[in-house]
């Protein structure tokens, strides 16, 4: 593993994957987010970007533990207040209020939904454009 990030000279992100004290790192929504594309899929980075997009509250901070989970982020999300001396206890409370989301649906469930969609598509296609079973002449009415 690389000992220094290739963006080291141009980046001021407080949460850096090369930082040895990552577990004690904190981040405010108005601070920079890691730009290294090698960490594009890191959960903490995804959560930072969600929070940055949604919140206007830049007076509260988030710990690495808070960021390193897949959570639902709304405009009302608030981090921890910096003047709070007991922020470790507040962090535990915050983590309970913002549980980690599991995958929305399983692969088996996805396949079942896809099979149902394909079946529906086929039945709809048949209803819209039914195959000809009789000749077109037999369908027309004859007037005398």
In short:
It is built from five helices and two strands; from the N terminus they run E-H-E-H-H-H-H. By secondary structure, the protein is an all-alpha fold.
Q: What does this 3D model show about the protein?
A:
This protein has 144 residues and is mainly α. The chain has one domain. It is built from 5 helices and 2 strands. The chain has a two-stranded antiparallel ribbon.
Poorly predicted parts? none
**Mean pLDDT value:** 83
Overall helicity: 25-40%
Number of helices: 5
Shape: elongated
What pattern of helices and strands is seen along the backbone? EHEHHHH
> What's the main sheet like?
2 strands, antiparallel
What is the CA-based Rg, rounded?
Answer: 27 Å
Tell me the number of strands.
2
**Structural class determined from secondary elements:** mainly alpha
**Could you tell me how far the N terminus lies from the C terminus, measured between alpha carbons in angstroms?**
90 Å
How many distinct folded domains?
Answer: 1
Strand order of the largest sheet: 1-2
- Beta fraction: under 5%
Features:
144 residues, mainly alpha, two-stranded antiparallel ribbon
Write the layout of secondary structure elements.
Layout: E1 26-27, H1 43-54, E2 62-63, H2 64-67, H3 87-97, H4 107-128, H5 136-139
